[in-house]
Amino acid sequence: MRIVNDKPSGCCTHRGTCPMFALFDRGNQLEYWKERYCDSEFTRCARYQKMTEGETPPVQLLPSGRMLRLG
Ligand code: SF4
To answer: Which of 38, 40, 62 for a ligand 1 pocket mutation test, highest count of atoms within 8 Å of Cβ?
Structure first.
């Protein structure tokens, strides 16, 4: 991880296993989340924080801490 302007920068280490990343990586309107969190400030991601604490986040948990509405 790099530190740029006092903020962590780089790519999330959970990209290979995170189901939400797979969704964001499809090139749809959800790509915003990937650019905002997965490819940059991933330590701010609610999913990342839960995994760092040893928890398994719900599949629908967005990086912001809100739940993705499906359907
Ligand atoms: S959604 Fe969060 S935990 Fe998943 S890859 Fe992106 S930054 Fe990492």
So the answer is: 38
Chain length of the chain: 71
**Residue 61 near residue 27 (C-beta atoms within 8 A):** no
**What backbone torsions phi and psi does residue 16 show, to the nearest 5 degrees?**
-75, -20
pTM here is 0.84
Does residue 44 sit in helix, strand or coil? helix
Domain chopping of the chain, boundaries: 2-52
Strands (E) in the chain, as ranges, are 2-4, 7-9
Nearest ligand 1 atom to the CA of 62 is 1
pLDDT digits (tens, 9 = 90+) for 30-60: 899 999 999 999 999 999 999 999 999 999 9
